[in-house]
């Protein structure tokens, strides 16, 4: 499971 | 999106614009570490590859593109356009001492062993240390122009606001990104010493920041 939560941050 | 995150992003943008305009207007990159700027360009490049794979929001896309363009424009000014003003002998930090451990760590400690994830992790780790050549250069020469210190101040403020953003997100969304948070804390610590000098020296009116 790739954690993508932080990927919305810059 | 919360107020800390938005203010953090704005401080980040202001910092990058301050640096770009300083070099552009003075036609000089004296006192600026080209190595740090190359590292930041590498940070943005490896992190924002998801521009091609996922859409988050118009804000997100626009900011990523702006950061990328400004980062490369700054590197262009330093290494090509105003190359003659670049203090390469003072910019002597060995970046391989950052790149090798950061690359190794991103392979070992990541959320998924996939190319984009490893590159994203690499960018997070690298960002936390990318400012070191610049701080090293200031320590070595013993001074920095005030405009350079304003750049560093906004960059440090951006980091501090991101910490507040994570505290906020933890309490409101239960969000906790271990890699981003730990790297972010490390990165912010690097600015503490600088913050102290900034408040005690620069804001008290001397034009340059000189180290004691």
Layout of helices and strands, plus pairs?
The complex is a heterodimer of chains A (about 10) and B (about 210).
Chain A (H helix, E strand, L loop, with lengths): L10
Chain B lengths: L2 H24 L7 H14 L10 H24 L14 H13 L6 H15 L2 H10 L1 E3 H28 L4 H23 L7 E3 L2
Antiparallel strand pairs in B: 1-2
Describe this structure in words.
The complex is a heterodimer of chains A (10) and B (212). Chain A is mostly loops and 10 residues long. Chain A has no helices and no strands. The termini of chain A are far apart. Chain B has a two-stranded antiparallel sheet. Chain A binds chain B through residues 1-10, and chain B through 5, 9, 12, 50, 54, 56-57, 60, 63-64, 67, 111-112, 114, 117, 120, 124, 162, 165, 175, 177, 179-180.
Principal-axis shape of chain B: globular
Q: Whole-Å distance between the termini of chain B? A: 41 Å
Q: How would you characterize the largest beta sheet of chain A?
A: none
Number of helices, where a helix is a run of at least 4 consecutive DSSP H or I residues of chain A:
0
Supply Rg of chain A: 7 Å
Salient structural properties:
heterodimer; A: 10 residues; little secondary structure; 0% strand; B: 212 residues; mainly alpha; two-stranded antiparallel ribbon; 8 helices; 2 strands; 71% helix
Structure at a glance:
Chain A has 10 residues and is mostly loops. Chain A contains no helices and no strands. The N and C termini of chain A lie far apart (21 Å).
